[in-house]
TrEMBL record:
Domain of life, per lineage: Bacteria
Organism from which the protein derives: Enterocloster lavalensis
Record protein name field: Probable nitronate monooxygenase
Keyword annotations: Flavoprotein, FMN, Oxidoreductase
Organism lineage: Bacteria, Bacillati, Bacillota, Clostridia, Lachnospirales
PANTHER family the UniProt entry points to: 2-NITROPROPANE DIOXYGENASE, 2-NITROPROPANE DIOXYGENASE-LIKE PROTEIN
Pfam families assigned: NMO (PF03060)
Protein's job: Nitronate monooxygenase that uses molecular oxygen to catalyze the oxidative denitrification of alkyl nitronates. Acts on propionate 3-nitronate (P3N), the presumed physiological substrate. Probably functions in the detoxification of P3N, a metabolic poison produced by plants and fungi as a defense mechanism.
Length: 308
């Protein structure tokens, strides 16, 4: 099973694990890469030295390729951008902004740059800036989202650019992978399903909340101030949405979520924490190793797509 993405990333299967803040640390990234997919370490808002330590720990666990997600809005983005070069990382995905100012440095280090986009306009802009591929991420995703669905976004982005496209948002099994390929994607990126991987360090309460979730259990906070985030419904989301409806400002709302992804992931506070997960959570029913997940999904996709 070869596509421009599997060739570019040097991987066996066209499955990428999203660079999730707090969740995508070295154990998960290395396990996905060891299983033949592509693991990413989530840089999130972490300082450069923290990301460097994560990269080094992942290298102790796997010789296979893995990458780093650089959050461009992070106060440490400049440092993390340099750390990935110094540590010999070959693939960077970027979120929340324009990676243009790092392009020359990354390109001369031989790094492939893959921005995450939620619209055709941004996809075109990123191709112009020199992106090597794109992640087209639909609103079904967990975490920060755009408004287009994966079903509508992926084929429109595929038509708009000539670089390869990775589909993300709402993909949780082999059917989802096959569907993404039918829309023109050359790989998929998944987040929510990998949250419950055995190798994921996410607190058991969080994993159970994802496993028990129904199809309609996610909510979107932050639409009123233009920074929508999809997470599973709880006391925090109810309070947040109520205050949004009352017209509270971004500053007034922010205190509700500051640091709460960390408390959900690390301490298991699924009541007041931010339990980021996508709409596909309703279909995720068990904890498995990354290898089991990837092999199961690839077998299903291969049968549907007649990949031999
Ligand atoms: C807990 C969580 C945290 C996330 N954090 C980030 C992040 O820091 N940077 C990023 O580019 N994407 C982030 N994402 C999005 C994922 O990388 C991925 O694109 C998305 O989860 C795909 O959709 P799915 O959840 O339906 O599989 C996050 C997703 C989740 C569930």
């Amino acid at each position: 099973m070869k596509t421009r993405i599997t060739e570019m990333l040097g991987i066996e299967y066209p499955i990428i694990q999203g660079g999730m803040a707090w969740v995508a640390e070295h154990n998960l990234a290395a396990a996905v890469s060891e299983a033949g997919g592509f693991g990413l370490i989530g840089g999130a808002n972490a300082p450069g030295e923290v990301v460097r330590a994560e990269i080094r720990k992942a290298k102790e666990l796997t010789d296979k390729p893995f990458g780093v997600n650089v959050m461009l809005l992070s106060p440490h983005a400049d440092d993390v951008a340099k750390v990935v070069v110094e540590e010999g990382i070959k693939v960077v995905t970027t979120g929340a902004g324009n990676p243009e100012k790092y392009m020359d440095m990354w390109k001369s280090a031989g790094i492939k740059v893959i921005p995450v986009v939620a619209s055709v306009a941004l996809a075109r802009r990123m191709e112009k800036y020199g992106a090597d591929a794109l992640v087209a991420e639909g609103t079904e995703s967990g975490g920060h989202i755009g408004e287009q669905t994966t079903m509508t976004l992926v084929p429109q982005v595929v038509d708009a650019v000539s670089i390869p496209v990775i589909a993300a948002g709402g993909i949780g099994d082999g059917r989802g992978i096959a569907a993404a390929f039918m829309l023109g994607a050359e790989a998929v990126q998944m987040g929510t399903r990998f949250v419950v991987a055995k190798e994921s360090i996410v607190h058991a309460n969080y994993k159970q909340r994802v496993i028990k979730a129904k199809d309609i259990d996610s909510a979107v906070t932050g639409r009123s101030h233009g920074h929508p985030v999809r997470c599973l419904r709880n006391q925090m989301t109810r309070e947040y949405v109520k205050l949004e409806q009352e017209g509270k400002s971004f500053e007034e709302l922010e205190y509700l979520t500051l640091g709460t992804l960390r408390t959900a992931v690390m301490e298991g506070d699924v009541t007041n924490g931010t339990v980021m997960a996508g709409q596909i959570a309703g279909m995720i029913s068990k904890e498995q190793t990354c290898k089991e997940m990837i092999e199961e999904m690839m077998a299903q996709a291969s049968e549907l797509m007649h990949w031999s």
